[in-house]
Amino acid sequence: MNNLHGGDLLSLADLNADELHDLLTLAAKLKYGDLRPRCDGKVLGLLFYKASTRTRVSFSVAMCQLGGQVIDLNPSTTQVGRGEPISDTARVLERYLDILAIRTFAQQDIATFADYADIPIINALTDVYHPCQILADLLTVRECFGKLNGLTLTFLGDGNNVAHSLLLGCALTGVNIRVATPPEFKPDDAIVARARQLATDSTIAIVDDAKAAVEGAHVLYTDVWASMGQEDSAVDRLPVFQPYQLNSGLVQLAAPEAIVLHCLPAHREEEITTEVIEGKQSRVWDQAENRMHAQKALIASLLGLVV
């Protein structure tokens, strides 16, 4: 993991296949107590411009379990909320912090922080990518099946930041991925192309037929149909996305051993039914827990606590 020491995670494309697999292996070891690295005296800053439950809490608990401290840099109570330039904020925060996780809107803002701050910067979510979520997702899938390579994951719904990061993560780990979404909501073409460049042992399909997409799949994954900042269009999206609802009918078309994932929060009876999210094939709560373990592995790697 020395390759990651001092680096940034702005997108899963910042990792190669070996680094991603090593992160997942480290996360599993940390989860089950096989390794107990310490970062006593280190400080993680959380700069979140968007609301958060799982990301905020999982990062905080992960850092505490590593022995470090967490500072919540609420934009509403700091100068960044009053328009201080990112370049100035970044150069100040690097003098105080050892590592910084940022949850914001524009991917370029994360990139600017990384350009100006000489500490590891973690993308805790932007409108384009959600890499930390996918670390937890892949860890969950590997726990369930004992492998990643050769499995098929189907994502249903909006071609959003989660879909983008799933495309990259699946490409790097040999997971076949099918993204089923209305044509006008498909993933960004450039990100799909990048995933296909990264893929050496997996297939990538962007389709609009939900039933065909889930047939024989090992993992069924969905997310809200309107992400943060898109609430005004939520009602208008309902009829467009209805054919992509993850319900028992679609689950029955998947492989018998298929699992169900959702990154949460869930709008039950919209993108997923209560029957499915609470059903025996759901691994949603394991997936949520694994945010903490995956991010602990990421923090430990970026701080150089493991070799």
Automatic annotation (TrEMBL):
Q: Which Gene3D superfamilies match?
A: Aspartate/ornithine carbamoyltransferase
The UniProt record lists the Aspartate/ornithine carbamoyltransferase Asp/Orn-binding domain at 150-301
A GO molecular function annotation here is: ornithine carbamoyltransferase activity
NCBIfam families membership: orni_carb_tr (TIGR00658), PRK00779.1 (NF001986)
- Residues bound to L-ornithine are 161, 223, 227-228
Enzyme kind, highest EC tier: transferase
Q: Which PANTHER family match?
A: ORNITHINE CARBAMOYLTRANSFERASE, MITOCHONDRIAL (PTHR45753), ORNITHINE TRANSCARBAMYLASE, MITOCHONDRIAL (PTHR45753:SF3)
Q: Which family does it belong to?
A: Belongs to the aspartate/ornithine carbamoyltransferase superfamily. OTCase family.
Binding-site residues, carbamoyl phosphate: 52-55, 79, 103, 130-133, 263-264, 291
Q: What is this protein called?
A: Ornithine carbamoyltransferase
Q: What is the lineage of its organism?
A: Bacteria, Bacillati, Cyanobacteriota, Cyanophyceae, Oscillatoriophycideae
In the record, biological process GO terms are:
citrulline biosynthetic process; L-arginine biosynthetic process via ornithine
